[in-house]
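Assemble and predict.
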Amino acid sequence: MPIVREDVYRLTVTGLDRDKNRGSLLFYVSTANTILEVITALDATIIPAVQGISDMLVTGWNIGSTAELDDLSALAPETSDVERKGVFSFGCADGTSMVLQVPSFRNSLVIDGTNTINTTDAAVTAFTNMIVSDAILALVRPRNYRGIDVNSLVKAPVKRHRASAKG
Amino acid sequence: MPLRHTVKVRFIFRDRSGNEASSHLYFPISTSVDDVFVAVNNAIPFYAAVSDALIVRVVAEYEYYFVGLPDPSITSDVKRTVLLFYRNEDSRIERISVPSPRVSIFETVGEYAGIRIDMSNPAIIQWANLTLGDLIIFKTKDGDTMGPDLLTGGLAI
């Protein structure tokens, strides 16, 4: 099912007070503006305007663009359980590792009698190649959170049960 | 200087019971939001092949934070807020909540002294010019245009 992008960006400006309590302002900005325009305006006008009326210290900001499923009433299969995670550990070019988890990992891709994910299955191989290979996603490949290239799996991926937000 | 590392993309999955959990991918901060969503749409089939939950939402976040900042003002307190009210084109009232308002933006005389914003204050005028101007188009969550009016009576809470 397709996802549909919202026509606003969610812009959050965060700051601290003297006692290190965190506060924030929430704006919605038209996607008629580019992200770059919003970033430029943050430095030039938005943060100065915020600091003009607020004496908290602006410490950062976040621009979010959201896309939602076109039919939010759709139901996942009975077998789905987002606490059943597929956990993948990748090595990165700087020697660090990156953990990627996939909620509601399909049980059919887990080797029977174990919690080990079957890395010989075509769907699992395609998923790991999506992370470590150039050009599969077109235009850009994933990195770790510091922007470093992700190289390869460093250990066998496993199924783990981890908490989720409750429905 | 702001630190810029990556665009964080959260894929949010929902199972049959309505529980939600997410999976994160990161892309170079230089990636445009349109290119991010091209990659997102290409990644969804790979996720769907290994997960039987629904991907109900995807959020791409550009996040910056500043380092080497001075201490916040001695008067700052984010538990105090001021509500700024706007009237949009179909006369609905919208609001923006601002933490730790400066004392100087409030009226200084009359029964609302210290409570109601002073619409002639230069910082309020600067704020109004920003949020109602054309440089950046501010909207409500529903996509309505913010304004055209910033109303008198913004109140300290």
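Chain A has two domains: 3-69, 84-161.
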